[in-house]
Amino acid sequence: MNIEAKLGLDVFKVDTEPHIVIKHEICQAKCQIRYCLNICPAELYTLDKQDEVQVNYEGCLECGACLMACEHEALTWQYPRAGYGVQYRFG
Ligand code: SF4
User: Fold this and answer.
1) Confidence band of 10 (pLDDT split at 50, 70, 90)
2) Cβ atoms 63, 89 nearer than 8 A
């Protein structure tokens, strides 16, 4: 079984409160490189029509890579509330 198939078995219980919030005023003003667009293993970061970074927190694997990569501290990141988030099936 390859990694995509294993990840496909994960279950997400999506919270109505996002656990990742982008501080757009910092992101837009300071960041040119936008590491988040490439570092997220679930490819949850995208650019909208206004060239603004957006994140679809619903599929988050809770790895923390985006938080580490954001050199301008433009993310508010916390684990989902108890009972929500990803449930891994293969560790
Ligand atoms: Fe993507 Fe990991 Fe950040 Fe979740 S914590 S959005 S999976 S990089």
Assistant:
1) very high
2) no
Distance of CA 29 from the midpoint of ligand 1 (Å): 22
Q: What CATH number should be reported for the domain whose range is 3-80?
A: 3.30.70.20
Convert the pLDDT of each residue in 24-50 to its tens digit: 999 999 999 999 999 999 999 999 999
**Ligand 1 closest atom vs CA 43:** 1
The atom number, within ligand 1, closest to the CA of 67 reads: 3
β-partners of residue 54 are 46
pTM for the complete prediction?
Answer: 0.91
Name the residue ranges covered by the structural domains of the chain. 3-80
